[in-house]
Amino acid sequence: MRTKYLIIGNSAGGIGAAEAIRQVDKEGALTIVSEEPYPAYSRPLISKYLAGERTLEEILFRPLDFYGQNNILFLPGKKVTHLELDQRTAWLEDSEQIVWEKLLLAVGGKPIFPKMKGSDKRGVFTFTKLDDAKAVDRFLDNARKAVVIGGGLIGISVTEALVKRGVDVVVVEMKERILNTILDEQASLMAEEVLTRAGVEIITGHTVIEINGRETVEGVALDNGEAMPCDLVLVAIGVSPRPELALDAKLKVNRGIVVDRHMATNHPGVYACGDVAEAYDFVYGDNRLTPIWPNAYIGGRIAGFNMAGIPTKYSGGTAMNSLNYFGIDITSAGMPTAPNNDGYEVISRQESNTYQKVILKDNLIVGMISVENIEKSGIIFGLMRDRVNVESFKQSLLADNFSLAFFPRALWQELLETPPGLLPQSAPSIQTEEETFIGE
Amino acid sequence: MPMSVTIERIWSMRRVYVKEEVCIGCGLCEVYCQVEHSQSKDPIKAFKRETPRPLPRVHVERNIEISFPIQCRHCAEPWCVYSCLTGAMHKEPTSDKVTVDMEKCTGCWTCIVACPYGALNRDLNSKTVIKCDLCPGREIPACVINCPNEALILGADEKKE
């Protein structure tokens, strides 16, 4: 089989690329291969599925007729096992071959599963895809108590779903506080308070070293010798890229597949995006893994334009999250805490139930956190993304009424694209061109 | 209220533009937006009897002598759409309007972090994001037609011409 565009992976990155390609090339044969049997669904919503709040249809990322409407050949439940880059050929498990002109690797990540005695028992799960949520769901009839290993985003989201299903949950976090990769100490503390109030037990500074039971989970043993009975264990330590196909094909791989500012790998015509890719992070000024949904979609979109022959540069992404568990809203982006060397400036503000912080380096915003008071997060994040020097208005960044009106006039006028005819010093020849893509 | 609003068809985007130098910061755009998105469409009833009270999708931003309203820019390249976790936020193919599907929105607020204008807001009752919808059913949005100093102007959609 031949296709102009081959996309391996059917989540945010793959869909982002497919939509960009179809924006500029309506005809070129486009094939999406997915290991999973489902149409694209929202992975972050598998917790809502487990909680019983949403069905599969209700977590679909695009309408059911998406593939037909966009003239996409969708091959669900198929696994690519080998790539022959020079022959531009992908081998599927059933030894079918697909010859491509442009290839995108959007194969995502996999849950980190540490070696642990007893981890092969019934009742031990990970939680990154719909089948995980289905498996946990089937098991819940026999479960009253769960141990969640890992207090990161996945761990806390599955915790909320389990609590909603009436399960008692203990979260075991190896580091000193939960959500430690995206929040600072104060914000973590506020999140912990909310979880504790919801009846969740949080154990920090320890880890599970063994899962006990005969065939099925009966409990866990912590590294301090404490034994804890439970009926199921969720391993939610994090995700790592799935670079196997790329490694096998001798593509340049660091922790993830290394891509340039056009989401291109080191092999012509081969692109990568999403959790499997190590793309440019504008906060760190270097390639990094930022395994979050929006960056996968945006990276995919950039890859898609480039694959379709429209040179488009990725302005970069960085960690960016919005959390809303157990009724608390928290947003964060960039660095959660300032590194321990000179040159960082921290502005923060705390009231009884709210907390806001920005981290600056050379008057550029490199980190932000907001608890509850999240409405202005986008403005702050926009300044971070656009690398705007905020020196003249940094004292206002955390004000209640902070808005674009605090920016220098030229900046907000540019952002609002005030048409020339509306400016007092009328200059009617300037016309904004609307065909710029992200990062251009 | 001035009813003779000129639609200056010179821009490519159908969205609301502001003449900042004539905005007096009165906030009537917010009020009329709330009324437009209320059940009763009546200011007194909307503010005094409707629970929850309808929320405005436009906000007057003020900084001493500067004031201008901000509502969704219906961006050509909308960060909110590209960041949406559920597929709820989308660009309508025919109108180019950025629209949120209330059924799909779960109130994760990722779009709020993505929007550089601060133009999106939480509706904590429905747990969905709310934004400017350019007043479906009206040729000219309520904020534009009710602005006492004609500070708001609807940009035209060139595609339609």
Structure description:
The complex is a heterodimer of chains A (440) and B (161). Chain A has 440 residues and is an alpha/beta fold. Chain A has 3 domains: 2-109 and 242-307, FAD/NAD(P)-binding domain, CATH 3.50.50; 113-237, FAD/NAD(P)-binding domain (3-Layer(bba) Sandwich); 338-405, FAD/NAD-linked reductase, C-terminal dimerisation domain (Enolase-like, domain 1). Chain A has 10 helices and 25 strands. In chain A, β23 and β24 (355-361) form a beta hairpin. The radius of gyration of chain A is 23 Å and the shape is globular. The two termini of chain A are 35 Å apart. Chain B has 161 residues and is α+β, with helices and mostly antiparallel strands. In chain B, 19% of the residues lie in helices and 17% in strands. In chain B, a hairpin with a 2-residue loop joins β2 and β3. Chain B is globular. The relative contact order of chain B is 0.27. The model of chain B is unreliable at 1-11 (pLDDT under 50). The chains are: A alpha/beta (440), B alpha+beta (161). The interface between A and B is large, with 57 and 49 residues.
CATH architecture of the largest domain in chain A: 3-Layer(bba) Sandwich
Helix content of chain B: 10-25%
CATH structural class of the largest domain in chain A: Alpha Beta
Q: Can you say what the CATH homologous superfamily of the largest domain in chain A is?
A: FAD/NAD(P)-binding domain
Percentage of β-strand residues of chain B: 15-25%
Helix/strand-derived category of chain A reads: alpha/beta
The fold-level CATH name of the largest domain in chain A is FAD/NAD(P)-binding domain
- Work out the largest interface and the residue count of each chain: A-B, 57 and 49 residues
From the helix content, strand content and strand pairing of chain B, which structural class follows? alpha+beta
Distance between the termini of chain B: 29 Å
Order of strands across the biggest sheet of chain B? 1-8
Assembly status = heterodimer
Note the overall shape of chain A: globular
Separation, N- and C-terminal Cα atoms of chain A: 35 Å
Please provide the ordered H/E string of secondary-structure elements of chain B: EHHEEHEEHEEHE
What is the arithmetic mean of pLDDT of chain A?
Answer: 94
- Domain tally of chain A: 3
Largest sheet of chain B: 2 strands, antiparallel
Portion of residues in helices of chain A? 10-25%
Low-confidence stretches of chain B: 1-11
Poorly predicted tracts of residues of chain A: 424-437
